Amino acid sequence: MGTAGGIIAVLLVVVSLGAFLLWSTGHLGDAGDFVRRVWPWHGSAEQLVVTPRLEEFFLQTALSESAWRKVEPRVIKWAPGDVGVIEDGPKSARSSRLLRQELRTFSQLAGATDFVLRDSAGDIIVTYLPHKEYVRLHGSAGPGGTYDFKNVDRAGRITDVRLYVDSSFANRRQVLVHLLAHAVGLVGQPRGSQFSASILSSAQRSSRSDLSPLDRQAIRLLYDPRLKMGTTREQFRAQCVAPVSSKASR
Ligand SMILES: [Zn+2]
Fold this sequence. Notes:
By secondary structure, the protein is an alpha/beta fold. It has helices at about 15-20, 50-60, 65-70, 95-110, 130-140, 170-185, 215-220, 235-240, 245-250, and strands at about 15, 40, 45-50, 80-90, 115, 125-130, 145-150, 160-165.
């Protein structure tokens, strides 16, 4: 358990299906003018190219059919502004430093949404559990961590997520980054060897502890303000490949 290169097996994906079922039809929003598959990034000169590979990765993670099970997958994310993150259980200066550092990376990728480590009042609660306790609560199918979406509102806004970390897992950073990637809205697990570099991949050889380039692009795409909460797979596909002046031509 916890060997280098080991995978993180996330045991429970307890998405708030009840909340999702209540959703009304999502709004498409104003798509604006997109260069084909190229999105300017938050008004900066930097552009995000939505390649077919990124599109497929996004469909498997943010809009994962298996993670959503009985309801139609929709884009869910945190609203712009501060999202409080707190540590629960045996924390230390070291664990806080690591978490704060990773939150900074996610904040940089998430545009106007900032993930901030706090002492209380967390929207994301990271609970460190001793191994025995972790297994008692979450089973022994795999080491690492588990996430639980406590609440997603009707619009697709994530408001409450719990992350549970097995303290005995050797690569704490790998667990944290994996769980945080889920917590920001990449709910699914990518399949196939083409995505094995992803921190979310279940492929054995994924031994990384940081976000892969594709993971980073997916988070940027997810938090692009033009990609509205509630966007469906169909709408996402249409929006991503829409040529310039799509309103006139389609
Ligand atoms: Zn996972």
